[in-house]
Structure formats: C-alpha cells, structure tokens
Design brief:
Layout (H helix, E strand, L loop, with lengths): L15 H19 L3 E5 L4 H14 L3 E7 L7 H12 L3 E6 L1 H8 L5 H21 L4 E5 L4 H8 L18 E3 L7 H10 L4 H4 L19 H20 L8 E5 L5 E5 L2 E14 L7 E2 L4 H14 L3 E6 L13
Parallel strand pairs: 1-2, 1-4, 2-3, 4-5, 8-10
Antiparallel strand pairs: 6-8, 7-8, 8-9
Helix pairs in contact: 1-2, 1-7, 2-7, 4-5, 9-10
The structure holds xanthosine-5'-monophosphate (XMP).
The site of xanthosine-5'-monophosphate (XMP) has 11 residues, from loops.
Amino acid sequence: MATDRRPDDMVRITTPELADAFIEEQIAALRAQIGDKKVLLALSGGVDSSVVAAMLIKAVGDQLVCVHVNHGLLRKGEPEQVIKVFRDELKANLIYVDATDRFLDKLAGVTDPETKRKIIGGEFIEVFAEEARKLDGIEFLAQGTIWPDILESEAGIKAHHNAGGLPEDMKFELVEPVKILFKDEVRVVGERLGLPANMVYRQPFPGPGLGVRCPGAITRDRLEAVRESDAILREEFAKNGLEGKVWQYFTVVPDFKSTGVKDGKRTFDWPCIIRAINTTDVMEVTVEHLSNELIDHLVERIIKEVPGINRVLFDYTPKPPATVEYE
Ligand code: XMP
C-alpha cells in the first residue's frame, strides 16, 4: 500500500534500479487504490504532472483522463509537445483545451501583478472544472504533489494542492503517486517511465507562465514577442551547452518603447530583457555571465527575428535585491 509520509530511512532515488523499484511498488499501489474506476489529471506539461501522468498510464491505462489546458501563456512548442508525448507516443486519453482567447480576454487591460495571477489561477480551475463536469464516472483526482510541497504546506509557507480549489460539489479522492519524492527523484523516475529528457530536466516555469514576463497589461503582440524571444534564448542555450547547466533563463518584454533605427528608418519598439540565473534554493540567486560572442549573437537574432523589438538588455542583478521574475 502507498505510504502517506516519506519514511525517515528511505534511500534517495538516484539510480535506474531504485527508480524501477519505486515505479513497480507505486503501480501496484495505484491499481489497488483505483481498481476499475476513472482518474482525472490536470496535465500542465511540467515535470511533476508529466511524471504522474506517465505513471498512471502504466498503472491504469485509459482509465486516466488527462486534461491539458492551454492558457495561451505557455512557451513556444509546449502544448504541441504535451500532445506528441502523451497522446501520440504514450497513447494517453488526453483532452486538449485551447482556452487562449478566454484567458487573454479576461486579462485584457489588467496591470496589477497579483490580480493577473488570481485571474490566471481562477480561470484555470474554471476551465478544468468545466471539462471534468462533461465526464462521467470520475472518482479520483491525480496531483503532482511532491514531498517539499507537503513540508512547505505543513510549515505554513504555501498551500500545496496543485489543482486544489475545485468547486465544493466536485469531490474526488486524491491520487498522489510522487508525494514522498524530492524533485531530483521525480526526474529519475520520469526518465525510467520513458519521458523525454527535455521534459524531465526542464527549467522551472511559473504557473502563470509568460503572463509574468509580459509586465503590466498583456497584449497579444507583446506576448508573442516574449514567446519568440524565449524560444530563441532556449535554442541558443541548448546549442551552446548551457541547457541543464544554467538553472533558469528567460526573456521579459516590458511595456515601454524606445526609439531606434532600422533600414534607415526610425523605429519605436520594445526592449527585450534577458535574465539567466543560478541558484540552489531560489531564496538567493546569482547571475550567469554569458560570453561576449553569445551576447552578440543573441542580440543579433532577437533584433532580426522578433517583431516589435529594437533593443536587447541583460539583467545582471542578483536576488536579493531583485526577484527572479519581474512580477
Ligand atoms: P521569484 O520571482 O519569487 O521566483 O524570485 C522564484 C522562483 O519561483 C518561480 N515563480 C513562480 N512559480 N507560480 C509558480 O509556479 C508563480 O506565481 C511564480 N512566481 C515565481 C520563478 O520562476 C522562480 O523559479
């Protein structure tokens, strides 16, 4: 049977053998818990929910229903990867909801960072609950809760229920197959379950997504500039051996314009800010110093390829005093 708490003497899962043993144990526990009933999972494409999905597919196959809500604030290629990996390769029962318009309409004109976060979180639950209501016979809700979430919620630092906050009338029994694992263990288990390395070892990405990297009121054109510049940055970091080495890196496109010149004509466009940081606990972060060649190349590509950008700036501020994200 699954344990609720991480045993004090549990060996850290660092090898394929230890991961396989954990997977085998969990699969038996999941089958015992779920029987022939159906399980629902909000699959964001992040490490934890992806590993939970892969584990449940192995344990109960198409009794698992995954719902991937695209809130329009995901990185370039993310929804496509979720569909490719889970629907096409792992044969998951996957419902894909493109709710981009709904989210962006609700966010239009909203400038306050915390209000933006609340709208994104609240709307997410609404879309997910609507999809759940369309389904018959769901008795379980799977969540990618991990051990640090439980410790932090016990310490009063944050509430841990990822898909928590569902309406009162929607009562499901929880299924949390990685809840006694640390993040590094979840990654090893995910690899053994056959998930691609770039999904399992991906950098942290906030729930409100690119929404917090498009400071102030989000507009579709500026959001696109964030998405495209982020894709270029990720591509260049991968090419230059920095993927998996630098803890987190992304771009921000602030809501102001400055004068520039292109092809002999005046431009009035946004700057694009690059932030690349390293940390262990995210309480304190240091900045990754990029080579001059890479800096020059990033500037050239972003200016040339991203509409609406005429300047590239680098944020070399540690935390504290600056937080990682801009909002
Ligand atoms: P800050 O900006 O607080 O970021 O220094 C620390 C880490 O947390 C991530 N972050 C978030 N993650 N929802 C999330 O799931 C959020 O609202 C959020 N805000 C920040 C951030 O990307 C960094 O890794």
